[in-house]
């Protein structure tokens, strides 16, 4: 423990040292910090402020004060929000829908990505572009017939309906991302596996899936937040509290004319917490992957 | 001789049969994703286009009356549609250019690698991963009348306070700000990755030739990030143009239709006015504009 802290410290010292020794003028560094400071205030202060406010009393919220004092601190908002049964139901629904969606997209996405990366068949490129072009479609155009279709399949107001809806939005990008990653795996590896008598399914399981893990992490992360954050499809497909997910369920705290700001903000923080945590865990792959892999495309 | 022909023939046969099985296996792996997309996106898209030529109500979707191009003719005389179209185009233009410029600025600042830049790079992604509804709640809270932080500050400066999302002339810029706020980090990360792949030697060489920072940016950085830039811009033109939830959740198109965009207008026609056919015809117009944009982009790409 102590050693790791030591080495961290040394790292920081070394880093600052190395940075000072580069021919970076203090003026330039100051400029960089000034710019980063401006971005920080614009991008992150509102989020930080919201999180702080959720730990304060209602009296503070409705006072003309900007900065809370320690005496305003309370956990009451979290107690109230988390003790609500309907809010907990929404949370569980969100978890079920986002997790199932991710698993479904990854399964069909890996299969399709493998197919488009390794097999050469008539219509492959057409299929690839057809997948990608679905990203161009305005969802609102699809929404009307989509609702009617789900209605006739008896999938309105069911979690399965939400999973299918979210999967279909996630599949094109998931497939495209995974194809890109699988393209980077040397084909000689699956040739060798084939020589050893592996079938395509076991090549997938033993070679492709383990080696494209970073890509799977990115596609999985992307699909999860897409499903977790969705409002539009849930608002159309979900009609009772039994199938509502968190983003739609936040309306709970917006009554007719008044808004219980302290509870609404607290519920909002709880709603975004899982995706932020997931991002913190997966960011190593996500940041690089979305930046390079996601754009690599064809 | 005979055996040779035979063996060659059997090799062809083998290759042909392996081509057959390989092809079918390839199709088989792509089928689950393709079928899902075809049923749940392909069919509704065609159906949506088909609906645009009918008069149909959400209350009784079975009963449809063919009206030809009447819905489109009605659009041409619909002032709300024209407003929404103008807002969509204006919003897309403003949002994408601001996002690009500010994202580029952030990428350049992060590139300085000052201590703490890495942490900020990760932290800034928070705005990109959070649900749109949470973003909207944050902004509405800040802009709310009375005790919103923005109004507390404005009040202490002796300026006017109000619920800013309900203020014509302010609501639209606020929608632009929310789009930009959300996407700056994504642009910054993508552009930063492109910048980091530029070999350092090129900058060294330029420096030796006496090129200043602005010249190095203009002649080395900019050309080498142009590909990623184009992709980011094209993607976000389509994302912004078809975006629904930012506007719908924050202002619902108000005040007085000041922020109405095509996507919210489709939704309102179909799910609030129950005019399925009319709503679908607006969706078709969006699709046509999107296709036109793509075609122009591909043509420009080819001529480059």
Automatic annotation (TrEMBL), chain A:
One of its GO terms (cellular component) is plasma membrane. Pfam families: BPD_transp_1. Keywords: Cell membrane, Membrane, Sugar transport, Transmembrane, Transmembrane helix, Transport. Its main location: membrane. PROSITE patterns: ABC_TM1. It is a multi-pass membrane protein. Residues 91-282 form the ABC transmembrane type-1 domain. GO terms for biological process: transmembrane transport. The chain crosses the membrane at residues 30-52, 90-114, 126-148, 160-182, 259-282. It is found in: Cell membrane. Belongs to the binding-protein-dependent transport system permease family. MalFG subfamily. This is Carbohydrate ABC transporter permease.
Automatic annotation (TrEMBL), chain B:
It holds the Pfam family BPD_transp_1. The keyword Transcription does not apply. InterPro entries: ABC_transporter_permease, MetI-like, MetI-like_sf. It is found in: Cell membrane. The chain crosses the membrane at residues 21-43, 85-110, 122-143, 163-181, 225-241, 275-298. It comes from the Archaea. Keywords: Cell membrane, Membrane, Transmembrane, Transmembrane helix, Transport. This is Sugar ABC transporter permease. It comes from Natronoarchaeum mannanilyticum.
